[in-house]
């Protein structure tokens, strides 16, 4: 299947088949793919938590609003978090990035407000989210990106202090009765000529 076909096949899954599990080698591949995600100046201000433990998933499901069943029935929930500790981030880049990248941060990002700096961190996390969604499409894994979660409660459940949850992604395999799959609910996109401009 080509990448275009994979993207045509993917959709936001509404109902998972809890009996179907993702092969371990695919989970390990997704971890490596996320590790390779791009970020501005290679800043990597993130953490990705793969949750397959049923007890933790149950706790997360209870603070996931309308996404409760997706969290429970999917194979794994991947939690995308941005670094919340700016001092820790600065230590990491001083130790791991070349001088030019650190200088860019100091000149263009560091002078901004704490809120703006963390918003910049968040943009990098969303780059990685797109990588995961695309990788899952190519691997035939169904996904549900979820901003409809209680982020602070996720942090509490996952014992996060230096990082803050932004978004979670349920991954697994669709229930064949899922009403939202393309065979039952064809994809709807704006006309390509209205969103793509060639100059």
Quick synopsis:
Its cofactor is FMN. With 199 residues, this protein is of the alpha+beta class. The chain has helices spanning 3-9, 24-35, 54-61, 68-73, 86-96, 99-109, 114-139, 151-157, 192-195, and strands at residues 46-51, 76-83, 142-146, 163-172.
CATH class: Alpha Beta
Distance between the termini: 30 Å
The percent range for helix content is 40-55%
Q: What sequence of helices (H) and strands (E) makes up the elements?
A: HHEHHEHHHEHEH
- How many helical elements? 9
β-strand percent reads: 5-15%
CA-atom Rg in angstroms = 18 Å
Query: Runs with pLDDT <50, length 5+?
Result: none
CATH superfamily: NADH Oxidase
Global geometry:
globular
Helix/sheet category: alpha+beta
Main sheet: strand order? 1-2-4-3
Main sheet properties: 4 strands, antiparallel
Q: What count of structural domains?
A: 1
CATH topology: NADH Oxidase
- Summed over residues and divided by their number, the pLDDT gives a mean of 98
CATH architecture: 3-Layer(aba) Sandwich
Number of strands: 4
Keywords: Flavoprotein, FMN, NADP, Oxidoreductase
Pfam family, one: Nitroreductase
Family: Belongs to the nitroreductase family.
Domain Nitroreductase: 9-173
């Amino acid at each position: 299947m080509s990448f275009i076909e994979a993207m045509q096949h993917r959709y936001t899954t509404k109902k998972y088949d809890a009996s179907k599990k993702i092969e371990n080698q695919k989970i390990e591949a997704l971890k490596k793919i996320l590790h390779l995600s791009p970020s501005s100046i290679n800043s990597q201000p993130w953490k990705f938590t793969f949750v397959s433990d049923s007890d933790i998933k149950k706790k997360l499901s209870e603070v996931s609003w309308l996404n409760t069943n997706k969290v429970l029935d999917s194979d794994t929930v991947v939690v995308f978090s941005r670094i919340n500790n700016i001092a820790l981030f600065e230590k990491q880049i001083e130790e791991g990035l070349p001088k030019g990248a650190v200088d860019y941060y100091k000149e263009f990002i560091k002078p901004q407000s704490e809120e703006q700096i963390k918003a910049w961190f968040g943009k990098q996390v969303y780059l990685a989210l797109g990588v995961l969604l695309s990788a899952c499409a190519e691997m035939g894994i169904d996904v549900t990106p979820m901003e409809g979660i209680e982020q602070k409660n996720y942090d509490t459940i996952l014992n996060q202090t230096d990082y803050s949850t932004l978004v979670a992604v349920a991954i697994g395999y669709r229930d064949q009765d899922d009403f939202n799959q393309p065979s039952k609910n064809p994809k709807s996109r704006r006309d390509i000529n209205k969103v793509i401009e060639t100059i």
